[in-house]
Amino acid sequence: MNSDALAAAAAMTGTGSATGSAGPSRTATPPAPVPAEPASTAPSAPTVASTATTPLTDQAVNVLAQLVKTSKMNRSRTTSLAEKPEVQALLDKDLFLIQSDRRTKMNPIQQLQLIRTLSQFFMERVDDGHRYAYFEAIFLGRADDPILHEYRLSVMYQLVSFSIQYPVLQYINHVMTWLCQMKNEELERNYSDRLLDMIVDHYVRTSNERNEMYKFLQPLRGTSNEFCALFFARAALHAPLNPHMVKLICEYSTTNIEFIHRHLRDTPWLGNDFAQKVVPKLVEYSLTNETHSADVLAWVICYVQFKWEIDVLANDDRKGPTKRVDVLDLLLSTDYPWSKRRCCMLASAISSSTKCEAVIRQQLKRLDVPYDYKPVIERLCAEDLKNNAPRVLESITDMHLAQELQANS
């Protein structure tokens, strides 16, 4: 089963096409946006109560203009803006309003004004080749001072949430670049979880049929591949799976599945946690929900199982995650109802399982299967299933169960 098969499945269910972006996962150029559901539109962005300037915003604008000017004059690239003491002193004093006790004197309203000013700044700098240098100087220039560094990071994370609605979707790419460049796995995990926890809390937990907050995250499928990969691989660890989270997972994966696999390969800790902790949650959701998204999710799971060892798992020639995707026992459990999607996931799980076919065949024959699904189990018990799993999966997809035939007659 290749990406074309996933694309065909996604097309049948109306969730977009499965395309991968070129290049290594951590430096890939985002592909053009692929609408997952043409009828879906993001809710109108909230308006700022007042766009009038204040002395604080005027001062912030002047500081940021000076930062740009300094960058242009910085002919020697051996010292970045983040490493220039005079630049950091200026940002502390006139942008973040840090006092002698190393605390800010900004109140919450002023901090919101600052965040809005920064959003406008990054929006205007979207084509500026030095935009990451600005990001680095503003938010990462006090890494040697735990108190000031933490304060700047708190503003950085608040700006992520604000920029999604503003919108300045490219801003989150700077945050993802920072995360992907980390050499310390524990720090990368902790800061990634902090980002996801905030976004899931603001846009998924609070999302309902009335406000549809999750729709603010939909455009990211075409602007931030790294974030899509992180959300796909880890969001389910930050909140229970719900229809809106699953819809985002399906849209992100059917648009960026090949990139996501490369990113999980290049980020072993993320791939290992996904294989061990997240895939079982996705499978269980697909088994217990009769929804459109559950159908799409089943196809995504099938694709992951077929391609994990080929494209992601570490081997003699490459580094990568060491944990296998193994949900066969879960799919053979008697706790879940039978459905065609379960049969499809079962076929792909058998193909990727390390168990020998004889043992799997015995387990299949012991199952108490409804009459409608006996032909499927017979097909799964056929000889040489592991080497013919894609063909078997296709045949299962094309099978008309007795209940389907009766419904169509």
From TrEMBL:
<dbReference type="Pfam" id="PF14964">
    <property type="entry name" value="INTS15"/>
</dbReference>
<feature type="region of interest" description="Disordered">
    <location>
        <begin position="1"/>
        <end position="53"/>
    </location>
</feature>
<feature type="compositionally biased region" description="Low complexity">
    <location>
        <begin position="37"/>
        <end position="53"/>
    </location>
</feature>
<feature type="compositionally biased region" description="Low complexity">
    <location>
        <begin position="1"/>
        <end position="29"/>
    </location>
</feature>
<protein>
    <submittedName>
        <fullName>Uncharacterized protein</fullName>
    </submittedName>
</protein>
<dbReference type="InterPro" id="IPR027844">
    <property type="entry name" value="INTS15"/>
</dbReference>
